[in-house]
């Protein structure tokens, strides 16, 4: 599991751990997974994306809890696998892959950052994948959007855009990290990785339903 990790040293300086590498890794991974599995489940991998697709009327709302359960379980299993193959030193230095708010940023800046990048991700998904099943470039567009989002805000919040991706490493980190390596704000701002993505996804749905849907557009 690739991660953008923002850590603090003793003098509170901020280290952005290889954001370009993480952006490319995430982008290519999502590109491949959506291309390979999109015809089976839609290739969401993200509770906020599932919410956007369901709220836009492109999937049954009754399927949402099952998607969310699978996504949260997948996030935990991915983080657990990473923890099992890393040394304790590697695990501690990366905070188990947790997405952490840069201490130089306020909570609302982090929340808005997550909301904006999730908006762009969900907007791309709704227009290129959910709105039509004939766009063969949809996986590439989604992967590139994810990469750009990480490049733009990775140093602020880690650019999660995905509550499952953020919750899994936090839970695993709480279990396996050395107590001295757990940052003081490990859970303090975790809520922004839920509120921000769902806010951004909801805005994407409203704009899509009002102005962009091919069918059932509310404003014509």
Automatic annotation (TrEMBL):
Belongs to the MIP/aquaporin (TC 1.A.8) family. GO terms for molecular function: water channel activity. One of its GO terms (biological process) is one-carbon compound transport. It comes from Ancylostoma duodenale. It is found in: Endomembrane system. The keyword Transport applies. It holds the Pfam family MIP. This is Channel protein, MIP family. One of its GO terms (cellular component) is endomembrane system. Keywords: Membrane, Repeat, Transmembrane, Transmembrane helix, Transport.
């Amino acid at each position: 599991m690739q991660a953008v990790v923002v850590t603090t040293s003793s003098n509170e300086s901020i280290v952005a751990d290889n954001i370009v590498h993480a952006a490319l890794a995430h982008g290519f991974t999502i590109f491949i997974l959506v291309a390979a599995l999109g015809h089976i489940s839609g290739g969401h991998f993200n509770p906020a994306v599932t919410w956007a697709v369901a709220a836009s009327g492109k999937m049954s709302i009754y399927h949402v809890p099952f998607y969310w359960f699978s996504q949260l379980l997948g996030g935990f299993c991915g983080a657990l696998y990473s923890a099992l193959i890393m040394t304790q030193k590697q695990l501690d230095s990366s905070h188990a892959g947790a997405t952490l708010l840069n201490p130089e940023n306020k909570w609302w800046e982090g929340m808005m950052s997550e909301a904006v990048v999730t908006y762009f991700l969900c907007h791309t998904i709704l227009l290129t994948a959910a709105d039509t099943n004939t766009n063969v470039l949809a996986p590439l567009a989604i992967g590139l959007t994810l990469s750009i989002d990480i490049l733009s805000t990775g140093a602020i919040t880690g650019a999660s855009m995905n509550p499952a991706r953020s919750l899994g490493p936090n839970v695993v980190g709480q279990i396996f990290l050395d107590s001295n390596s757990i940052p003081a704000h490990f859970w303090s701002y975790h809520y922004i990785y839920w509120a921000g993505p769902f806010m951004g996804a909801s805005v994407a749905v409203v704009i899509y339903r009002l102005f962009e849907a091919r069918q059932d557009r509310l404003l014509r």
